[in-house]
C-alpha cells in the first residue's frame, strides 16, 4: 500500500510541475486586431539572469489595448509581467525575466 501511495505522490508532483505555465495572458484577443508582435530570444549565460523590456506605443494612431499575450516558447522558469500601461491603456511595457542560468524565448502579442 505504501508503494502505491508513493507512486501516486510522484505522479501528482510531476503533473503539477509540468502544468506550471509562465505565460502572460491579459484581456482578450477576441474581436481584436493584432497591433504588435515581437519574438524575444536571448541566449543563456551561466549564473546570469537575462531580462528584456518590450515596449509598445503607437503614437500615430493611439488605440486602447484589449489584450496582451506573452507565450514562452521554450518552457523554463522565466516570468513576464506588465510594468506600465497594459489592458485599457494606449501603451504597454512588458518585462521578461529568465531564471538564473537560463535564456529567454517568448512571443509577445498585443491586440487592440
Provide a short characterization of the protein structure:
This protein is of the alpha+beta class.
Order of helices and strands: HEEEEEEE
Low-confidence runs (pLDDT<50, min 5 residues)? 7-19
Shape: elongated
User: What is the number of beta strands?
Assistant: 7
Q: Biggest sheet: strands, sense, closure?
A: 4 strands, antiparallel
| Average of the residue pLDDT scores | 84
Q: Tell me the strand percentage band.
A: 35-45%
**Overall helicity:** 10-25%
Number of helical segments with 4 or more residues: 1
- Widest beta sheet: strand line-up: 1-4-7-2
Distance between the termini: 56 Å
Tally of distinct domains: 1
Radius of gyration: 18 Å
- Category by helix and strand content: alpha+beta
InterPro entries: MBF2
Keywords: Signal
Pfam families: MBF2 (PF15868)
Amino acid at each position: 500500500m505504501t508503494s502505491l501511495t508513493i507512486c501516486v505522490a510522484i505522479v501528482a508532483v510531476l503533473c503539477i510541475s509540468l502544468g506550471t505555465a509562465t505565460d502572460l495572458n491579459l484581456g482578450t484577443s477576441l474581436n481584436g486586431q493584432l497591433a504588435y508582435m515581437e519574438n524575444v530570444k536571448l541566449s543563456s549565460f551561466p549564473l546570469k539572469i537575462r531580462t528584456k523590456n518590450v515596449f509598445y506605443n503607437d503614437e500615430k494612431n493611439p488605440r486602447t489595448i484589449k489584450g496582451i499575450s506573452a507565450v514562452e516558447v521554450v518552457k523554463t522558469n522565466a516570468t513576464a509581467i506588465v510594468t506600465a500601461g497594459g489592458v485599457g491603456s494606449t501603451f504597454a511595457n512588458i518585462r521578461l525575466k529568465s531564471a538564473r542560468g537560463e535564456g529567454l524565448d517568448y512571443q509577445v502579442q498585443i491586440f487592440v
